[in-house]
Write a sequence for this structure.
């Protein structure tokens, strides 16, 4: 009888694409014990997913990864529309910004091969001694039916059987053995295993959506062309069909062509073996060369990567099973490449899930917090699919030309304008829930509760050094409490701030209520006070010392000393002379806004989804790991 | 008879402080064979030199090192003056920017321990497989007297005997042997071996200057104080004497106190053993605690680092011997810490020397180019010493109080304003010479020939992506030729640009005249064309293809598509509708400006100090290493 090893892990991640790697690296950083498995032999090396949108770059920044990403990525600032001209060839009808979100910190999209983006997360994991186990596949998954076990914070109720494959490359590393399976008992399992997700199928979660499948050709290559806009994002509507051009790193571009004349059978299958990159590029009906006329398009260097695939717009009917197994990324949503959201949506799923898993595993929050993952990300996915459906329809429909009905350029452009916040990711808005309380929205009129917090420059009170607020809000799993005290040289504001500071530290106050005994005072809540006092007058001693875990936590809203930045933080947030308290969730989204003298509202907000610390089961190591993480950040 | 090993190296650097390490890493990057030795056992770990000024940060940026530096450094944006108030204690009399150079890309100074800064260069060297040999001291240095050997580009005319010491730490690594000396024959030797430079003494170079020595106490510690400006740069003039406060990383500050009551003997020596950190901080006549009254100053955490030293203002009478041995850094100039220039001056010496050595070693230029190192850097050092002398005198002189003659606050502030460009490094200006031709200054009225080139935002023509020009001018040892063609939709300008492109590539034209046969066309000259055409109209095809080594080399001056940056490049440079040609030296300084139709002037400029390629002795490996470097940048 062969022996099957068994082990325990807090989180088992299945799939090491962008969604799985993002989640794993975020959790590993937070001190969570994670294992990641992937069925592939090796990392992907070229091609695959698209670029990152402004919000996704902001998210990378919050993990300290944006600089490395940006140092290698191509930037897309500009886009053009081409439409049929009077002579039948295309002509440029519009030229403008690719990103129209005025508050985007990074006002552009950026492309980098998926392998490089995955490398960011693999390297980040490696810093903490973690790596992907591959090729390993799950062969069985079972969730306990015992309700007590499901509700317990110390149980490992998900049983997964993993099988290690013999890879060609790794063959010599894996000793051949009869029994290459093992059993992993996990607190949580996340299926980030792609559009054909094994986890999703095993959980019997349906994909819901229209069956309108479209077949797309994608090719990455170094073009030879006289199209002047070849280095910007182009949407091309020709009388021969439509395509999109996306600049990539170096001399590469990506070309997306919908192969309208390739048909799938009733089962949504088509014969990929009959197609090649030249079926995407070269002249024939509905191919890129024809669409670009009168501009030339060819290539001499080898094709970097290409694929042809069929896609429908569908969303999973549920993103979790019993709040113990979750799916993320392409496992949850499939859509056309037209919206260019694929990798962004996947990584944002993981960003949303990471802090919730960490909060529950650390026992800061009861498991019910995890329900908001399905709520927030399934809503988003549905919006994404609806958006993609409209966009894809417009894209396929022939453009209106003289004597030819169709979509006008204006219709198309209007549609894009409408969805611009959505496309950049900046405008993604989570609906009201236990973690998104919109009742105080009038207190910060230009901040949208449920959206990511606005960037803005403030000055450190001690030294007038300007800081971008986003740089002070790292994804370290903590809630950020921004106390906008306004003018504390005004006795009325100072009194409110002093009262707040006192209440915060009372035995039943916010800090002691939720922060585990023995943990540092700022383990869960990072308090940042932003006054509005002239930089020349402001002193750290004006801020109640109970609010300052360190002198660096005191800020003011004023113009920087060299006059280049700052001075409009309150105005940009729409916060009055009365000030406000803004709660920023660990993922950088605004959770709630309260009046400066209404800490009770903040306490009430956290009461809904955090666990009073008296109910926490002591777990050794968590506090220490949190300390370690904070030290590293 | 013991055997003494002999070897050859292109450059031997003696001393691995900031000057030596900067030079070594710059040369190693450029593919030059370099050895670096230092007498110290180990790296310094705390304390030592001051922060970096704006220009020095720009220089680091040109080597790709600024991001890493800035991610760790403390920033100083603000400064305050304190002067005696009516009750005898100090009071703040001014608060303002620490950096007053409006064109500084980084409008602040930044502090980091010297060990971390040295670490930047050591890590950079390690990337190329180079490291410091220590503890190793030179014991003999001999320059050939043979004029032919001195003029030859293939000779190794400097003979240095090195002796490896047994270190405590490295003892087990060095096999004890009778003969631990070796002979190195070098093409060039650089003494970056500090204020007591062995190289300088061996060359019998005098230090020239007044004998006014001053004794300074310096201490790095975490202060406990109620001085509100403790986190900004403070100059404190009290009736008890003067001191300066410099914020450092974390909770540390640096305190500089001139110990006016400690006296040196006739030989400029004093008994350091009788002094300690409390002699700098604690209350007694002319100590910091007394100077800060009515503010408190104390400490509880251990002192991080301290020293007491004596310094005079002196400059070496020559910076080189026979253009084969050079001195750099503190070996060339000593001055008080008051100007805060130490490490900045040292690194700038090396930055100035690096490209000249590389150009001569690659045979792009004859050895006479090296004469400009002494010319430019000794002039600078003299200005630095003059500045320091004035500053130090003001600093020591008691401030004027009621009924007490002295320096007024206004006098002091005026002096600072006068020298602000010098202090930030932004205004450092090299005098006219073979490499600095000021005759075309009217063609770019806001650019100062001899100063570092102004930063400015331009858009890449192919995609309207905004770039900071400085990011396009890496310290890769190449000359950057900026062709400001102005509006090339104007036939007059287009004709001038076309003519320039044709002339550039003619057999006797600039490129073929100086670029070695077989080397890539852009080996010596990196050509960047900056038009002034609306981003919506501009096309890469408007630029003569001979000017573009790659499509990324075509730029235009216009506002970025998101409207946040750009659009004032020509205006900020003071270049008219006629355009201009700007030659930027490899170190980022403006070498000359010519009219767009006067390439002859550019040819004439380079004729003065570059070697026509027909005269180059073929040396294998140089072209390949250059290619490698360009590929890496």
């Amino acid at each position: 009888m062969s022996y099957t090893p068994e082990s325990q892990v807090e989180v088992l991640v299945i799939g090491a694409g962008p969604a799985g790697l993002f989640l794993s690296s975020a959790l590993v950083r937070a001190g969570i014990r994670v294992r990641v498995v992937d069925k592939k032999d090796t990392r992907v090396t070229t091609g695959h997913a698209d670029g990152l949108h402004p919000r996704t770059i902001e998210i990378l920044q919050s993990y300290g990864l944006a600089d490395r990403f940006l140092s290698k990525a191509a930037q897309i600032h500009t886009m053009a529309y081409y439409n049929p001209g009077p002579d039948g060839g295309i002509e440029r009808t519009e030229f403008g910004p690719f990103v129209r979100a005025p508050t985007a910190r990074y006002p552009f999209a950026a492309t980098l091969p998926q392998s490089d983006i995955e490398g960011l997360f693999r390297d980040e994991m490696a810093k903490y001694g973690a790596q992907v186990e591959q090729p390993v596949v799950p062969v069985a998954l079972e969730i306990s039916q015992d309700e007590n076990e499901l509700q317990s914070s110390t149980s490992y109720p998900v049983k997964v059987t993993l099988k290690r494959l013999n890879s060609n490359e790794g063959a010599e590393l894996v000793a051949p053995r009869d029994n290459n399976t093992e059993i992993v008992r996990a607190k949580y399992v996340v299926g980030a295993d792609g559009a054909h997700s094994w986890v999703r199928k095993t959980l019997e979660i349906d994909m819901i959506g229209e069956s309108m499948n479209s077949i797309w050709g994608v090719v990455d290559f170094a073009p030879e062309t006289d199209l002047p806009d070849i280095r910007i994002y182009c949407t091309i509507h020709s009388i021969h069909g439509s395509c999109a051009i996306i600049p990539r790193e170096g001399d590469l571009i990506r070309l997306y062509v919908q192969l309208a004349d390739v048909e799938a059978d009733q089962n949504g299958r088509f014969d990929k073996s009959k197609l090649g990159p030249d079926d995407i590029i070269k002249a024939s009906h509905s191919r890129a060369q024809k669409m670009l006329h009168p501009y030339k398009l060819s290539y001499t260097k080898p094709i970097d990567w290409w694929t042809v695939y069929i896609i429908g717009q569908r969303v999973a009917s549920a993103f979790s099973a019993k709040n113990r197994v979750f799916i993320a990324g392409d496992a949850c949503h499939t859509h056309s490449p037209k919206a260019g959201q694929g990798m962004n949506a996947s990584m944002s799923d993981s960003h949303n899930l990471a802090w919730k898993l960490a909060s529950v595993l650390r026992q800061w929050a009861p498991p019910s917090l995890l329900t908001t993952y399905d709520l927030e990300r399934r809503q988003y996915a549905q919006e994404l699919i609806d958006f993609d459906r409209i966009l894809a329809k417009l894209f396929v429909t022939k453009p209106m030309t003289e004597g030819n009905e169709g979509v006008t350029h204006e219709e198309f452009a209007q549609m894009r304008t409408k969805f611009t916040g959505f496309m950049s990711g900046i405008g993604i808005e989570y609906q009201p829930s236990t973690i998104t309380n919109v009742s105080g929205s009038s207190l910060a009129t230009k901040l949208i509760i449920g959206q990511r917090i606005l960037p803005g420059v403030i000055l450190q009170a001690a030294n007038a050094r300007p800081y971008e607020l986003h740089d002070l809000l790292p994804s370290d799993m903590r809630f950020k409490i921004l106390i906008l005290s306004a003018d504390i040289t005004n006795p009325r504001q100072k009194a409110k701030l002093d009262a707040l500071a006192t209440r915060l530290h009372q035995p039943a106050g916010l800090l002691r209520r939720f922060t585990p005994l023995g943990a540092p005072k700022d383990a869960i809540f990072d308090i940042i006070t932003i006054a509005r006092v002239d930089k020349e007058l402001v002193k750290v001693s004006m801020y109640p010392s109970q609010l300052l875990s360190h002198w660096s936590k005191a800020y003011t809203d004023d113009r920087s000393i060299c006059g280049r930045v700052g001075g409009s933080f309150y105005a940009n947030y729409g916060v009055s002379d009365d000030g406000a308290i803004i709660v920023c969730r660990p993922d950088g989204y605004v959770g709630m806004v309260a009046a400066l003298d209404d800490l009770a509202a903040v306490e009430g907000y956290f009461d809904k989804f955090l666990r009073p610390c008296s109910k926490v089961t002591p777990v050794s190591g968590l506090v220490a790991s949190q300390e370690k993480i904070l030290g590293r950040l």
